[in-house]
Design goal:
The protein has two domains: about 25-240, Sandwich (Immunoglobulin-like), CATH 2.60.40; about 255-335, Sandwich (Immunoglobulin-like), CATH 2.60.40.3080. The strands form six sheets. Strands 9, 10, 11, 12, 14 and 15 form a six-stranded antiparallel beta sheet that branches. A five-stranded antiparallel beta sheet has the order 16-23-22-19-20, with no helix packed on it. It contains four helices and 23 strands. With about 325 residues, the chain is mainly beta. Helices cover about 15% and strands about 45% of the residues.
Length: about 325
């Protein structure tokens, strides 16, 4: 009888795990390849944006390659990264071009909001989040988390993390005066980040990078997008967008000291930026209060880590990290 009870409990547990390991809705993203010198773009883009406005949940990014017009303003401001994304899909050479969830769509199709309907019930074995915040007063940090939520057979994923400006008001020679969701910076440069996703449900892959703000960007209009493609065929696997970059505010981290670590107050409201003095990548980080209680833990491979400490009480805290070379370093900060 006890055996049967145990067997039934085990089966119920298995069924529960299977039920919880379900795919999540796949967000829709349209990658829009356009050019401020392109007259054809000026003719077609207004109708495209009108159709897009009827689908407020669709993520949009506009990319400005250097072909067919090399003197497009947004292309000249970041030629290599705009061209790199265009070449990723083998679309370099003409504009306008469109990709919805990695699939090519014609200019004519993009004039109607119904073009997105077929993508509204797609699912993904991964959930994804994208966050953007200030680091100091002159840099931004983007953190992307990819979580395995269901079984999958994907060997490698390509992660593209563009920072975009939601509206740029510029009277271009083709007659367009407003430009939307303009690619400003790829957080990984010209290349995508290639990684092998875990098959263990609940495992999280974290990518984090920091770049300096540029004067030509309007910081309050910036947000970050995360796009996951299957490395084998470039099909979209998942996408996400962050909130707009929040205005920098004074941090409550007022003092710090470290041994082998740089622990800097970050002007992102109650956060600290931790990195090694030697430049080694951080693999593991723990934060303890003065009673030895662990108040924060993260396993991550990154050159620097931005940690939200807004929930911590005013006190002194010890930081211990392990680098990718096996070194253990420690430091301390004070929150008042």
């Amino acid at each position: 009888m006890d055996f049967m009870k145990s067997l039934i409990c085990a089966l119920l547990l298995s069924f529960s795990l299977i039920a919880n390991a379900q795919e999540v809705p796949k967000n829709i993203i349209v990658e829009h390849f356009t050019n401020t010198k392109c007259g054809v773009c000026a003719n077609w883009n207004p109708k495209f944006y009108a159709a897009l406005a009827q689908k407020p949940n669709v993520i949009h990014v506009s990319i400005h390659p250097s072909s067919p017009f090399s003197n497009c303003l947004f292309s000249t401001q970041n030629k290599s990264e705009n061209d790199a994304r265009t070449q990723y899909y083998n679309l370099y050479g003409s504009t306008p071009r469109f990709k919805i969830n990695g699939e090519t769509k014609s200019v004519t199709e993009m004039q109607f909001s119904t073009v997105y309907d077929a993508y509204e019930n797609q699912t993904s074995p991964f959930s994804i989040s994208s966050d953007i915040e200030y680091v100091g007063t002159d840099s931004i940090s983007v953190t992307v988390e990819v979580t395995t939520v269901s079984d999958h057979n994907i060997s490698n994923l390509d992660l593209f993390v563009p920072v975009v400006e939601d509206s740029v008001f510029y009277s271009s020679s083709n007659g367009e005066k407003a430009h939307y969701d303009v690619l400003r910076k790829s957080m990984s440069g010209d290349n995508v980040i290639v990684f092998s996703p875990s098959k263990v449900i609940g495992d999280v892959y974290i990518y984090q990078s920091t770049v300096a703000l540029k004067s030509i960007w309007e910081a309050s209009r910036l947000y970050a997008i995360a796009i996951l493609n299957d490395n084998s065929n470039k099909a979209l696997v998942q996408s996400a967008k962050s909130e707009l970059l929040q205005t920098a505010t004074a941090t409550t981290i007022v003092s710090f000291n470290a041994n082998g670590l740089s622990i800097d107050p970050s002007i992102s409201s109650n956060s600290i930026l931790i990195k090694t003095v030697s430049g080694q990548a951080i693999q593991l980080i723990h934060i303890y209060d003065m009673n030895g209680n662990m108040v924060f833990s993260r396993k991550q491979s990154a050159n620097n880590i931005n940690v939200d400490v807004s929930s911590l009480d005013s006190a002194v805290y010890n930081v211990i990290i392990v680098t990718d070379q096996g070194r253990k370093l420690n430091g301390r900060f004070v929150k008042k």
